[in-house]
Every structure is written in structure tokens, then in C-alpha cells.
Amino acid sequence: xxxxxxxxxxxxxxxxxxxxxxxxxxxxxxxxxxxxxxxxxxxxxxxxxxxxxxxxxxxxxxxxxxxxxxxxxxxxxxxxxxxxxxxxxxxxxxxxxxxxxxxxxxxxxxxxxxxxxxxxxxxxxx
Length: 126
Hints:
Blueprint: H1 3-18, E1 30-39, E2 48-51, H2 53-66, E3 67-80, E4 83-94, E5 100-112, E6 115-124
Parallel strand pairs: 1-6
Antiparallel strand pairs: 1-2, 3-4, 4-5, 5-6
């Protein structure tokens, strides 16, 4: 796949999420052995390593269970070969206590033959 094709796949997933069309990435874009890594604080229930489509779906089920909404804004895409980096900011609200959390994020996504094989999430809190 070309860099442009890899970018288009990632942009589609991110834009669908930002527009509320799809909170979970479509399986058509995920490799069966996908590795999804969330690097966050130790008390974040999403922090961890998820391998395979089933575990990624479980991650998003947890996310949708604990998060009530928010705003996700992409600031920049960087593409090099089979990697796409997405930088932005988000604000989410938790269902259990109504607390709002704002953070910066970086996604480092690796694709192989049009499928995402790794999605690494790195959060930064002000």
C-alpha cells in the first residue's frame, strides 16, 4: 500500500470516530492479530495491551461503558511508509462521576497490506 492509501484508512477511522459514526473501528481495517496498546496512567481502566479483534472489541466496550461523551480533535497526521502518526486533543466525560478530563494524544499506527497491525495510544495530561 502507498503512504496515501495508509493515510486514507487511518483518516476514515478517526473521522468516523470524531463524527460519532463509529466508536469502534470496522473489522475491515483490522488485522486478525492486531495489537492495540493504550499507554496511560496506572489507574486508567483502559491502559494495557489488547491482542486480536476480540480483545480490541472488549476494549471499546469498556470505553463505551465508562465514557459518556466528549470531543476528539485531530491536529496533525504524519505519514512515513507503513506508519501513520495522529496528534490531537480530546476531552471526555466519565459516566460514573461526570468528571471531565482533557488530554493530548498521539496514535502511532502501523499498517500491513491495508490492515492495521498495531495501534499505539499515548496520552499526555496537562
